[in-house]
Amino acid sequence: MAGKTQAPEFEQITVEQAKAIRAERTLNRRRFMAGLSLAGAAGSMALLGGCGNSHSNGSSTVMAAGPSETDVLNFALNLEYLEATFYSFATQGTDLPSNLTAGSGAITGAPSAKIAFPNQQITDIFNEIFFNEMSHVADLQSLIGSGHVARPALDLSAAGPVTSANIITIARQFEDVGTTAYAGATALLTGTNLAYAAQILAVEGFQAGALRLIAIQQSAPFAAADSLDVPTSDPGAEVLATQGPTAAGGFFATSGTATATTSVPLATAFTRSTSQVLQIVYNAAGKTGVSKGGFFPAGLNGNIATS
Question: Least CB-packed of 30, 121, 172, 295 within 10 Å?
């Protein structure tokens, strides 16, 4: 360079100023994340407002400010019970260990034997996913403590009998929905709870990506969970791949040139509210006010159970 240039002004700020700026940016990010998911969650949270929350003294209070963080974590635990139980029967041919399922509801629709996967690599991937999901159940139970909900009744055949022909399709949907559910929940959590949820979210994302690629390679049918579900698709051309997913789909369930919006910028994951997630797992697309059905024939356990 021909000569020295004056250092940019932002490099001259004090440590205290830097801390203040960082704090403000963190706050702005939290507000932005809340804007992505809380609007969608408002419908289901309003339904909770009319539900009494009983206490030991016999009084009843109204959850006017939305769910507690324990409620949100228990909502996630219900979903983890479903996934872990599904993968346990599919890969091990049996239920989860009894120490994770005390007080469990009835389990129906489980395959009668381990699933025969197309090859050893896919078998190994599903076994590792089973390990992850079973561990997520244990992790959340430990994080929540004595207030964690028991496993609700599950119907694993809600999307049809679990077979080698459809397991990739069902698992792909579970992982994509799980990822967006955790993405939506992050705005409702703080501190250690947020850290745990973010780490589980990352694992769900890893698994979703692997299963989407497997689905493409195995030509597994795509079953859309709802209008946010991004079809699995190989764009087939470098120029298309560089533009991200299109309306026809993509390798990853992110927003692309044809699907991004002002609230979901390019290359970010879609978020689902609790109501949207419940509509999927209850097999009640587009319906609010539903409290059971589909994979959860008696509903979820806990305070967040109505779509």
Answer: 121
